[in-house]
């Protein structure tokens, strides 16, 4: 379908936003604060107007970097952050109690140097607290003007509907790419029905569909993907065969693999936006350069046949991590 500007909670945004996580952690050594600030400023210059962060990214470092870098440009972008994953020393927990949500927001506002976060997500489902109670607390913050809208991350269609019955849910953020099709089970359609924007994180499959992992699959010691089954051992070797074929399609169509991957995600619905992350300015420029390229239907079908939940080898997460995720899984 033709690509045009899209919206979150009534705010127009570029379909390609910026996931800021890589500026603080996750895929190896993050850039210096100076280089991170340079990338953030360049993002706004290029037309990125939707920045996505979270408290857990660098344990506050990511929010701090955005606040210190962009406080004087705050009116130029739609700002999203998240709470719900709490780290105390070497212990990590999911906590979406109302009092925890309120305290976390106040800290985020301070770090981000702003009096309002446009979109505030529950980062994960807290199975010990009714979702209605957590959303009720967020609704209070909307009424107080401290947040503009409520989002959920990595949650099911059932949870989305229960939350939406308490207060409109502006966005659902979940991993979505050719390699990760779980949202197609139920969440994509639920978002469409409810008027909820679907925010696709890792739209280039955690770098796999952007030449971000070498052919040997070697990953750094601190790289999160080392604990994700599809990126290791025989699983990776099998998936690499699919990726090589995908790269050949990109070359034939005259786009980069990342651009092809983003175009595929955006073609799945006009209620979808993407937030590819990067710590590299060249990749930042690449990701947005063809944001309005319309994927030919024949190519979309070819990609669907090539890479899908039946052809990809290995699950998204190891069992321990999967138990913390509320999204639907394929049988």
Topology:
Layout: E1 6-8, E2 11-13, E3 18-19, H1 33-46, E4 50-52, H2 61-70, E5 78-83, E6 85-88, E7 91-94, H3 98-112, E8 119-122, H4 131-143, E9 150-153, H5 157-164, E10 171-175, H6 187-194, E11 197-201, H7 233-253, H8 257-266, E12 272-274, H9 281-289, H10 297-306, H11 319-322
Parallel strand pairs: 3-4, 4-5, 5-8, 8-9, 9-10, 10-11, 11-12
Antiparallel strand pairs: 1-2, 6-7
Organism: Novosphingobium tardum
Protein name: Aldo/keto reductase
Domain NADP-dependent oxidoreductase: 16-302
Could you characterize what this model shows?
It comes from Novosphingobium tardum. Keywords: Oxidoreductase. It holds the Pfam family Aldo_ket_red. With 331 residues, this protein is α/β, with parallel strands linked by helices. It has a domain of 231 residues: TIM Barrel (Alpha-Beta Barrel). The chain has an eight-stranded parallel β-sheet with strand order 3-4-5-8-9-10-11-12. The longest helix has 21 residues. The radius of gyration is 19 Å and the shape is globular. The model has no long low-confidence stretch (mean pLDDT 96).
Kindly provide the name of the CATH class of the domain at 6-207 and 262-290.
Alpha Beta
The CATH architecture name of the domain at 6-207 and 262-290 reads Alpha-Beta Barrel
How can the largest sheet be summarized? 8 strands, parallel
The CATH superfamily label of the domain at 6-207 and 262-290 reads NADP-dependent oxidoreductase domain
How do the helices and strands follow one another from N- to C-terminus? EEEHEHEEEHEHEHEHEHHEHHH
Gap between N and C termini: 30 Å
**Could you say which structural class the secondary elements and strand pairing correspond to?**
alpha/beta
The helix count comes to 11
The radius of gyration over CA amounts to 19 Å
Spans of 5+ residues with little confidence (pLDDT < 50)?
Answer: none
- In the CATH hierarchy, the third-tier topology of the domain at 6-207 and 262-290 is known as TIM Barrel
Widest β-sheet, arrangement of strands: 3-4-5-8-9-10-11-12
Number of DSSP E strands: 12
The helix content is 25-40%
Shape from CA axes? globular
